[in-house]
Design brief:
Blueprint: E1 13-16, E2 58-59, E3 64-65, E4 85-90, E5 102-105, H1 109-119, H2 128-153, E6 162-168, H3 175-186, E7 198-205, E8 212-222, E9 231-238, H4 243-263, H5 266-278
Antiparallel strand pairs: 1-9, 2-3, 4-5, 6-7, 7-8, 8-9
């Protein structure tokens, strides 16, 4: 999950890199493409360029305001306003009472830029389209990891779960991330010492009975691939909010332990010794 790792990352972490055709290969190989540590951009004396009167109400599904598609001053580069549909299903619209299943729609580059300006993050408009590509790519991979967990508890005939709502929490480190940071502080030569550059909490709803499960996703930068492509690591797991989630986490952890032992040949040696003793 970082440049200082000399041992395998936690079992639930999935390393990933963009496909070769993706424009995000032009970004630096490590770290979040958005400069979170930069101070907010100073606004002109004429006031904030965003009309906050339309941004007071947050969308309860993503804790974000309804951002405009119009350029904001001093933006000099025009940005696309087209939005891309994701593969992530969302809950059936409760207002229209339709039975059609919809998917989440990613923000346009213009909306994404407006959101960054609203948060005071200094990001060049020239890089926004690449940042949006990274954002969409990582979310698709995160949903794939969520589905791996969901398949473990799915029953025959179940419909596909939906992402009901989510919240970005980049300034709040999860307990697990804090644990690995402590491990990196104690054993820097063995564990990662870099914190995740982002965190999301996703609420997944199961159509069978309406159960909602919270998933925690930590986003890490990872070493670039041998061909120089940027690398990312995702740690996706159900939050420890219920007994079922605790049981899932323990079961997956034990599976990974046994798999590691088998890869080292422990099981083969044990079986060979048993067969020799019986002969």
């Amino acid at each position: 999950m970082g440049q200082s790792i000399s041992s395998p990352p936690p079992a639930t972490v999935t390393r990933t890199s963009p496909p070769s055709s993706c424009p995000m290969h032009d970004v630096p190989s490590t770290g979040c493409p958005i400069q979170h540590n930069n101070p907010p951009v100073a606004k002109s004396s004429g006031g904030c360029p965003i009309d906050h009167s339309s941004l007071n109400t947050l969308n309860p599904t993503n804790q974000m305001p309804n951002l405009p598609q119009t350029p904001i001053s001093p933006q000099a580069v025009p940005l696309p306003t087209e939005r891309t549909m994701s593969s992530i299903p969302r809950v059936v619209d409760g207002e229209t009472k339709t039975d059609t299943h919809q998917t989440w729609e990613y923000p346009s580059p213009q909306q994404f830029y407006n959101a960054l300006v609203r948060k005071g993050l200094d990001t060049s408009p020239e890089h926004i389209e690449t940042v949006v590509e990274i954002h969409n790519f990582l979310n698709e991979r995160a949903w794939g990891e969520v589905m791996k967990w969901e398949r473990r508890v799915a029953q025959e005939g179940d419909e596909e779960p939906h992402l009901a709502r989510f919240k970005g929490r980049p300034g709040e480190m999860s307990p697990k991330a804090r644990f690995w940071m402590l491990a990196g502080w104690l054993l820097p030569s063995r564990f990662n010492t870099e914190p995740p550059f982002d965190r999301h909490d996703w609420i997944v709803r199961r159509p069978r009975d309406g159960t909602e499960v919270r998933y925690v996703i930590d986003y890490y930068s990872a070493p670039s691939t041998p061909n120089g492509d940027p690398g990312f690591a995702l740690d996706v797991r159900p939050a420890l909010d219920s007994l079922e989630s605790v049981q899932q986490r323990v079961a997956v952890g034990m599976d990974d332990v046994w798999e590691g032992l088998r890869e080292k040949g422990w099981g083969k040696r044990e079986r060979g010794g048993t067969q020799q003793a019986r002969s």
